[in-house]
Each structure stands twice: as C-alpha cells, then as structure tokens.
Amino acid sequence: MTATSRAHSFNAAAAQYAANRPSYPSALFDAVEELAGRPLAGARVADVGAGTGIATALLRERGADVIAVEPGAGMAAQFRRTLPDVPIVRGDGNALPLAEASRDLITYAQSWHWTDTDRSVPEALRVLRPGGALAVWWNTTAYDVPWIAAQAERVAAHSDVGSTPQVRPDDSRAAQLAGLSDLRVSRRHVRWSRVVSLDTHLANLTSHSAFLVLGEAGTQAFLADERGRLRELFPDEKVEETYVVDLLVAARP
C-alpha cells in the first residue's frame, strides 16, 4: 500500500474523521504565536491538508484570516458542510494554489508527512511573506501511558505498518525528519487529554489510514478484541486519551 493510497483513504471516511478525531488544545496555538513571533489575530493563514477543518476552525476562533487547502474531494466536501463560510481550495502542499508572499503563516495539522518535502518546503517559502512562518504539528502517542503504548503495539501488529519508535527524536533529528534542517526551527511539546466514550475512541482509532486501507473485515476483527480489552480497563466505557502535540515552527528567512 503506497503513501498516496493511504492519504486518499480518508476521503471515504470523512464523516467518521470529523466526528471522532481529537482536536487541539488552546496551549498549542499559544505556542504557535510565541514561536512564530506574532498573534494569530489578523494573520493571513493557509491551513494546508485541512481535512474536515478541525484546525482551521480553531485558527479562525483565534482571529486568523484563514484559507484552507485540501486535496481530497471527500474531505473537502465535509469541510464545506462544517465550515461553509471559510474559503477552501483544492490543492496540496507540493504545489500550493496560492500567490507568492501572500501568507503570514502556513499550517499543517497532521498532514505534513503526506508531502514531498523537496517540493513542499520551497512551496511554503514561496507563499510566505518575509518574516512569515511554517508551523507543522501532530497529535502523537503518549507512550508513557501503559495502556496507550500497549494499544499502539497491537495496532502496529494488526495493520502491519511497523511499530513507531517510543523514544522521541531530539530537536535536530525532528527537524531533519521533517525536511526542515536548512531553516531556523523551534520545537514545542504540548501535552493534553480528552475523555470520550469507548465508541468514540474506537471510531477515532479506525479513522486512521492503517485501518482504512485494511477494509471492513480486517477492521472489525481488531475492534471486537479491542473493545473487550478496553471494557476491562474502563468499565464505565469512558476512555481518557492522552496526546503529546509535537510542534515545529520554521521561520522564513
């Protein structure tokens, strides 16, 4: 299964994605403002790989003037239902449909890894005004929470995608992995959690590409076992999900 097919798998599950995926804490946007060196209020922002608009809506709540960029038809349709008054254009980070030096900030929430950084980094620099910034972030697994780490191992084994290293790379390595080594990069970790129903937790889990490409049979087999395990841990069927947002902000020279 290619990265492209995994990326496009979200389009068939856009409603599931919108209903169950976690959002982002207010502290993340405080950190974006601090590291970018300007407030979001009044900033001209492009939210790329916007998906169903989870991050876009929060950027707008902070007063940003946001345009969304999304390559997937299903995700874009869900975005328009959720945020009908926010402009969205079809496109991706490798060839942004935006004018040169037109944005103060470009954001990628959970989507930077789907780009070819040999192309997406120059594109971001082209679209950013001098002094602007590129902010990329991910809700990552809190491996210090035992049940979450164990579940991550089960997901990796079932979906055959390989385990993710449980030790986070240092700042230099993180910038390198993100293709940002040639830029001045700042990093911040923001820990947060949410309490959701067991059904929401499982729907969130299976909205990830590793399950979407498995098909219904492979997904349901995992869910049946996982529901039983989690009921033992959470008999009230209220699950506390813990995340560590990994944020990188790169300044345009």
TrEMBL record:
Keywords: Methyltransferase, Transferase. CDD domains: AdoMet_MTases. Gene3D superfamilies: Vaccinia Virus protein VP39 (3.40.50.150). The keyword Metal-binding does not apply. Pfam families: Methyltransf_11. Signal peptide: none annotated. One of its GO terms (biological process) is methylation. Residues 47-135 form the Methyltransferase type domain. GO terms for molecular function: methyltransferase activity. PANTHER family: METHYLTRANSF_11 DOMAIN-CONTAINING PROTEIN, METHYLTRANSFERASE TYPE 11 DOMAIN-CONTAINING PROTEIN. Belongs to the methyltransferase superfamily. This is Methyltransferase domain-containing protein. It comes from Streptomyces endocoffeicus.
